[in-house]
Amino acid sequence: MVSIIALVLLGLLWGGVYLLMAEGLNLIYGVMKVVNLAHGDLIVLGGLLAYTLFAHVGLTPITALLPVALVLFALGAAVQWGILERIPLGGAEGELRTLLATFGLSYVVSNTSFLLWGGQFQSIPFLQGALRLGPLAIPEGLLACSLAAFAAALLVHFWLHRTIAGKALRATAESPLGAASCGLEIRRIRIIAFALGAAMAGGAGALVIALVPFQISSGGDLTVQSFTLIALGGLGNYLGAWIAAEILGLAEVLSQYYLGPDIASATIYLLFIAVLLFRPQGLLGRLGRI
Amino acid sequence: MAKNGCARTMGRRAAGMATLAAMWLALGAAPAARAAEDGPIRIGCSITETGPYSPPAVFELQGYRLAAEEINQAGGVLGRKVEIVNYDDQGNPSTAVQLYQKLIYSDRVDLLLSPYETDLMSAVAPLVTRAKKVMPSLGANVDAFQGQFPYLVQAITQTPRYMGPAIDLAASRGYKTIALLIQNTQFPQQLARGIEAEATAKGMRVVFKESFPPTTTDFSALVLKAAETHPDVIVGATYLADSEGIVRAAKAQNINARMFAFSIGPVEPEFGRGLGDAANGVFGTTLYFPTLHTAGNAEFVAGFQAKFGRAPDYHAAVAYGSLKVLAEAVRKVGSLDQDKIRDALLATSVDTVAGHFQLSPTGLQIGYTSYVLQWQNGRQALVWPADQASAAPELPHGAW
Amino acid sequence: MTRLIIESAVLSGLALAGLMIAAGANAYVVQLLFSTALAVTLAVGWNLIGGMAGYVSFGQVGFFGLGAYAGALAMLKWALPWPLAIVLAACLAAFLAWPLGRIMLRLSGIFFALGMFGLARVLQIIVNALEITGGPMGTSIPTAEGPGATAMAMVALATGAVALMMAISRSRFGLRLAALRDDAIAAAAAGVDTSRVKVAAFCLSAGLAAAAGALYARNVGYIDPASGFAGTIELQTVLMVLAGGIGTVWGPVLGGIVISLLSTALWARFPTEQQIILGALTLLLAVAMPGGLASIPPLSTWLRRPMLGAFTPGAATPAPAPAAVAADHAGAVLACRGLGKRFGGVVAVAGVDLAVAPGEILAVIGPNGAGKSTLFDMISAFSAPTSGEIRFRGALCAAMPPHLLARAGIARTFQTSRLFPHLTVFETVLLAAASRQHRFRDAQQAASALLAATDLADDAERFPDALPPGRQRLLEIARALALAPAVLLLDEAMAGMTAAEIARVHAVLRAATRRGTAIVAIEHVLPAIASLAARAQVLDNGQTIAEGPPAQVLSDPMVIEAYLGGDEMALAS
Q1: How many helices (H) and strands (E) does chain C have?
Q2: Quick check: ipTM above 0.90?
């Protein structure tokens, strides 16, 4: 009995970790309808930056969060301004070119990381203990990531719904043309959105590297995992992403326990394909879009 | 083996694009040098010099270089100097295949050395065999040395023996049960079979056994399930990232055992850096340690330190050992006749820096074994076997 | 024709050079040759589904791995001779790709790409878990004596792949692929079985990848899950195709060679930075040169998809006779009863009855949002009605997909014109004609005749973008007429036409009705069709509010009421 409760708890907490890593991608997709294939590499970059700040300056991941997010924000802004803005959006052609560009970017980011950090797995000893709740042990690291995911989701929600810039961003997501005709400067909004998405990816990396060791080639799988999650949730859908993350976390932990880890890894992909085929609009449909 | 299997399966991203690059480059730059009888003996190999998988392979290359230098200082082999001809395979098996083709048919090197690691070695094995070239191989897998590739001899500890001493240590403390967690890739699977055999031989029981795919990052449920069998020892047939993941999951869920031991993982310095205090008390396996009392080890460590500015690791040691053994075999034969060199190697029984080198009739390494290390106060200490130990093992593992 | 000769000469030259190297050079050079031919084969195969069909996949490596294992096991377990094992592997992959394609190709864009990635992963997990494949340990295969034979086979495979693409680009199948990539809906309306075409491309692509995989396994003599399903293979392939020119026949070949040379040069000079430079190059390519090398001016003309057929002046065949028109007992060829459509809570069409007899012209008018286009979408099977029934020649056509309906004789145009940017005017009409004519030559004759009749002959080799809006509309009508329809649905087909163009369209439509074609024409404003139509039906809020001769309908108070406020001027004009 304790075991099933523990498993569900672990599943929900890991769901939070997955959500944390996917939020930046979701924001960028929500605003620009662009899938950033370098997303995972930005997470890894954020993690490795946090690792360096820990190893050489002694900053914990939580203190490192702000500087790492700032660096990634600047990087994201530069990428959007310098590269992606130069590709006309819209249509299959625009989608292919953006995919291609971010695919190239992922090479640049991961291999530059290799020059700086080498190829070995790195991690940070941080929040490794557990909170005791009777017979239950709640891993601190997982809890911290889940809380951070929740906080980030709330902040983004607040920002999107309560601030001028955020409302502008939502207007852009609804209709770029309409937003432009309202006098909003779309270009700047897109730059901010991409930069923010990158900053969120980097921040997530800074926290998650304390749970999962990162290596420069980890990025590809993180991109796919994050994309799976937001596609399950319905691209750009925040509530959906959260539910999808919890489902993924639970499915992963429970199938690992009951069906074995090998099957667990295949279930996620099968679930992904099944949802794409039968509910292409995501789990929640139009509900909960920004 | 330190290369992480996880990253491996994920796709050799950074190592990728070079497949074709390697061949074009080599095509353009082929020196077409022909070995003159009085020129140096040319020894070829491909090494992963760049890319994410390069760090252990560079150790290997340095081991080869140091051995070659020492051989030359001692007057060379057959009165000729030796010279290493190496190319970068970027960790890509098909590139390695092309580079060995080049070494054999285009550069026409006199002798071959092995690439690192097992999958590169497995990829070039058929080709090397076809060309009837002897190759002391740094591939730990057993199946390549069952007679299928008669010109390959194993110059590294065979996989099933990797964790023998660790099991031996556990048995010596009277531990009875083992939970075995296995990464579902080539090396750990073969290793797990060795662990099971060793445990049975020592009167221990494997009460839990489960394999997980290399992409696994969350080990919570797996560790929880293992703990339900209340094992004395939790053993991981793993690499770096998954050993860390298992230790993290155990600590975060307060899952205790008397002993935690992993194949690859604790041997890497990153294990201690990534886990901090949680690393203390965890056991790992290595094929070599600078403090070993093996033949010529003190000189090897000093020479390596002087030449490369760092202490050698096990990749360097086995590579160094393999070239030394090969040179000795050539000396004994008195020519570069590959069949005779092979026979001489099969008859070799000699102590190297990595231990006692001896082969089965099919070229399987039956001399080399492994050593057990433990993280103690943030440092690795060699703790088993007792006659090589630099510190006493701290057992049982305390509560987290 | 000369172009075919030049291309064939280049291909045979390359193949011959390859075979000579394979036969004569030392093992190392032969190995290089093998890898180049492998890269070309994979790029060409990927381009078929990713470029020509427009379904970018991140999982074709799954078929490479499948082929490698199938070939290896056929050699090992059944002791098949290796060439046979390779053919078997290719067939197996193509066979499996059929059901997979039926499922996966319902996805598109990034979803298809990543769905395929997931599929390849699942395949890898399965292979990793099976006993017969050697699990994670992989399996050794009896090795070739030397690389010569496998390299020759690889060169032959690559040559065959390129030749196949040359043939496809000159075939009806190639034309349909090009149309599918440009606009799947318009292609279906032109009678193209889009699902079948893309699944066929998918199967061929899978077969090529699998054959390459089986040869790869034979050549290396060892296969394990990590190398059989390596993501890098996919990435390299995609990059080469993109660099060369996606969707072209020769782009992938060019890309394979150029990228290899380039990465070699980089590797020699900047071994550690090479990957970064290649990544940056990809970025640059995406931003500045999305068409790849094949889009550079002289090449772009040489490497453009070859034009299919040409307008033959004075083609003997007149526009094809419409499929034998049969009306139901009430004399209607098309009859809708109580047709309704709701989207969620919104009712777009609420119980409309509509009937048209052979040779009749019916005008359907109504203000914006009256449900006219939704009605057409239901009749042409692009959307399913939520209530009511449609009878074509007296038979229910509920379960018929759009392309079958188009072939059976219900053709349509679209409100906003949907032409194929990469098909010439002639090819556009030919595509539809080829849906009706079994022999391709007959289809070319029919297309020529139709172009002459619609006054588009001078534009035969132009692309739609180069035409003024009115002529684009005309082309769409010509495309629909090429299906020799029994019922022609025109959705505001004459919007934006000059008076001369309208007169031409009227003549063409009259000719069609004389052959028995029934025409249903939606117009926002009546005059464009009034002089032709014998009968008009007015829709408002999804319902019929008036019906009868145009003059009578226009004076109906309810009709005036419907247009008032919104668009009273439209009636007056």
Answers
A1: 24, 12
A2: no
